[in-house]
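Protocol step 4 of 6: structure prediction from sequence.
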Amino acid sequence: MGLQGRTIRLIGIVGKGIETRVIRMDATTNADGFYMFNNLPAGRYILREELQRGFVPVGSPVKNIMLAQGENSMNNNFTNRPIRSLVGIEDHRDTEDHKDTKISRTSEKN
């Protein structure tokens, strides 16, 4: 399942010698989590996802890509999972059979 509204940053170094230049672009993922950078010249690129509150990356949030002239690079995917918490309460209650019985309750939270 893709995540909508994520920012993917591209930084590229293209050209040679005095014609070397830096390209910086951002793309935002659509409802399916899809993003695309079009018409890129040959060069070395770094893709980085902007991390979102409440999620942690599974794998590297940075991808290094080398594009030759006319080449496409596909499946540059980022995977995230929600941060989870374990919440608990511990009570001490007197019952008829047992004095000061310890009762623990836990629940998982997203």
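Step 5 (inspection) to follow. The first strand starts at residue 7 and ends at 14.
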